[in-house]
Amino acid sequence: MELQSQVLLWELVLLHSSAVLLSSVPSGSLPAASSVVSESTVSWAAGALAVLRCQSPRMVWTQDRLHDRQRVVHWDLSGSPAGGPARRLVDMYSAGEQRVYGPRDHGRLLLPPSAFHDGNFSLLIRAVEYADEGLYTCNLHHHYCHLYETLAVRLEVTDNPQEAGAHWDGEKEVLVVERGAPALLTCVNREHVWTDRHLEEAQQVVHWDRQPPGVPHDRADRLLDLYASGERRAYGPPFLRDRVAVGVDAFARGDFSLRIDPLEPADEGTYSCHLHHHYCGLHERRIFHLRVTEPVAEPPPRDSPGNGSSHSGAPGPDSTLPRGRSVINVIVPEGRAHFFQQLGYVLATLLLFILLLITVILATRQRRRGGYEYSDKKSGKSKGKDVNLAEFTVATGDQAVYRSEDIQLDYKNNILKERAELGHTPLPTKNIDLDKVFRKEYCK
């Protein structure tokens, strides 16, 4: 009897799997035509390195090291009569490992072991009870391709066999099952991404196209073909083939940026990056309108002899030193103009000092020369009359001794004579008439 019931249950599974499919369309069923993800205009100067960015994390190729555990299906229950949050009922990986979470569900919940081969992920519940009522969701996850599909089925339990059946409420399937009878919650998806294990490296392709100005897209030239297996093919005109490149680890990082070095004016045009992941159903295209501008004129080097400065001897900054919060002393070398300016200041100061020294010397010599002329003039006048005044002694009360001097007595008028007499007038303390004394001595 048990064997007959098992056969009957699996017959129901096969009948339902051929009639009901997932309501959501998987991304693997998208058409093979590429969809334009981005379009931009970039400009680079001739002679520079041009980089056209084309990146996608979904194109990263990683081998399955967990025995195909990147695909998983799990059934969840929410809105049950007991209340509470949604809970996990059962899940199964593509390697065939199945796990039931609730202790009371062991032996009651079953998933087909060949689900990831024939695309049938339906859940079989033996002996339905009122506690099994609620909203069931079938969740398919493909971690490698970043795909997530969900299908909802509402289960209702009744005691009337005539009410049993299935209908569509506009959003999901509603299944009414008699209490104690088996229930089959259908979830079928036969897309190859869920059923087959293709070689991902054979189905990941990236290629770059180039359209010269005025050429339509359908007549573009192929530049590069890249495969996840490591194979590469280069096309395009010879003048451009040797100057374009894509990183060798492009599929490891998901970076398929095109590098053109050096860029030439003839490289101008429209470039397209096509990303195809046939296994995951990814088909994207990124468009770049490349414009080549004139190279920017570089300023003359500062250490050239024509600009009056020399910095070739100055040491450059050390890039190995750590950058901290410190004070940096910058010594700027002086130019030739500044050197001549400082030299002019020094020479002007030295010249002023020399002029001052010459003025002092001339003034000193002039004063000495004036003194010598006065002495000579005095001595010359005294020799005109051949008058020699002998020394004489003036007897006074205190017996003072005076030395005679040679006095010229030939005056032109009386005024000069009086001035001379006043100039030779002795101190008022001694009333001695020297003129009379001189005359007496002269007359003798």
Can you characterise this structure?
The structure is a single chain. By secondary structure, this protein is of the alpha+beta class. Helices cover 23% and strands 26% of the residues. It has nine helices and 19 strands. The chain has helices at residues 2-17, 115-118, 192-195, 200-203, 238-241, 250-253, 336-382, 414-423, 434-443; strands at 35-45, 50-52, 71-78, 87-93, 98-100, 109-110, 123-125, 134-142, 147-158, 165-168, 173-178, 183-185, 204-211, 221-227, 232-234, 244-245, 258-260, 269-277, 282-293. It has a seven-stranded mixed sheet, with no helix packed on it. Strands 1-19-18-13-14-15 form a six-stranded mixed sheet. Strands 2-17-16 form a three-stranded antiparallel sheet, with no helix packed on it. A hairpin with a 4-residue loop joins strand 18 (269-277) and strand 19 (282-293). Residues 7-31, 304-314, 321-325 and 382-407 have low confidence and may be disordered.
Shape: elongated
Distance between the termini: 196 Å
The chain-level mean pLDDT equals 75
Strand order of the largest sheet: 5-4-3-8-9-11-10
Spans of at least 5 consecutive residues whose pLDDT stays below 50 are: 7-31, 304-314, 321-325, 382-407
Question: Which tags fit this structure?
Answer:
444 residues, alpha+beta, 7-stranded mixed beta sheet, 6-stranded mixed beta sheet, 23% helix
